[in-house]
Amino acid sequence: MATTTRVQPVNEVKDPVKAKDTGLNKPQTKLIIGGLAVTAILMVYLMMTQSSMQPVLLILGLLLGYTLFHARFGFTSAFRRLASVGNGQALRAHMLMLGVAVTLFAPILAFGLSFFGTGAAGYVAPVGISVLVGAFMFGIGMQLGGGCASGTLYAVGGGRTVMLITLLFFIVGATVGAAHLPFWTEELPSMEAFSIATSTGLGYGGAWAVSIALFGLIAWITLVVERKKKAPKMAPLPTTSGWKRIFRGSWPLFAAAIALAVLNALTLMTRGNPWGITSAFALWGSKAASFFGVDVASWSYWQGANAQALEASIFADSTTVLNFGVILGAFLASAAGGLFKFSNLTKGNVTAAIIGGLLMGYGARLAFGCNIGAYFGGIASFSLHGYVWGIMALAGTFIALYLRPLFGLSVPKPKDSFC
């Protein structure tokens, strides 16, 4: 009689609670108090120095980070699970998230709904060599770096030390990518930006129907792959029950998928654009380069509308505020679960973090966004480039499976336990 091996999920942030332990660690009260204090100070500062939009975005960022950590909602891990052992549970959660997102985005974009009178515009970008190469690079980079853009932020908040290195080189890569972007977008072939809603005549209603059908098809394909490969199921993470589960313990992937879609829609209505992450990395890196004498203001990337951001405080940048919120939200979530703990550094994971961060930063600029801005935000905005990004990032993931062992990183196998 065949035996069945129960497999733990691949997560971007390893959970220090053992799978056999059905309980939870005690809340790290001092860390929670410290995190709340930092959040309060930042909130007051934003209220006193910035527009009324920025404190709202900080709250949204906190909720995004809290949700990501509680559900261990990964993009890197979802692609790796599918590519390595054929498990598509997390990717189906992506499809649910995108389905809810397009349902909310359609009327917001159609009618320009917003809270602060900014209007609403989605992320619709051209598809060209830059997107193909950039997304492919990002797919490799996120598997080496240990997390995608959102995964890097919430892993930093959760105390995973090596992700600080990933983040640093993510910023470096994004800055170099910003400097090189004109070559990739102006010198190489590219088609015009294509929206399923506005470029086809379908309108947002028709584009919504097409999108839902595509998500359903992708979900069905993952089920076929799972049956064919006899993929292992994801083991549940330690959690609790009742209202306490809101604050402690893991959340179901489907609940996090819905929450992330709603929060992205609220972000769209608050600042006029969907959730994004990596544009802030290019800003931080460019400001640092300028401090050391580099004439970044002369770069094409920082001309026009972007010039003001380079001159202003980073706290005036809405993406920066969202990023800080995600880190703080993940920190509070990890402390509430008693999970905040610095991880070990090795020569292998540090080297992989450096290479992965550089590839992700550079690739994100070429591809007009990361797993959030291009994949999540682009598809939710009915942009063709979001789908292309997902395909190329998955292709990069397959390549990265052969590269990970070179750095001492594990590659999941059907008969192995992995986390």
Automatic annotation (TrEMBL):
The record's InterPro entries line, in alphabetical order, gives:
Sulf_transp_TsuA/YedE
* Domain of life, per lineage: Bacteria
**Which locations, inside or outside the cell, does it occupy?**
Cell inner membrane
Q: What is its main location?
A: membrane
- Mind listing the UniProt keywords for this protein, alphabetically? Cell inner membrane, Cell membrane, Membrane, Transmembrane, Transmembrane helix, Transport
Segments crossing the lipid bilayer: 31-48, 54-75, 96-117, 162-184, 204-225, 246-266, 321-340, 352-376, 382-403
Topology in the lipid bilayer: Multi-pass membrane protein
The keyword Signal belongs to this UniProt entry's keyword annotation: no
Matching PANTHER family: INNER MEMBRANE PROTEIN YEDE, SULPHUR TRANSPORT DOMAIN-CONTAINING PROTEIN
In which family does this protein belong, per the annotation? Belongs to the TsuA/YedE (TC 9.B.102) family.
The protein's name = YeeE/YedE family protein
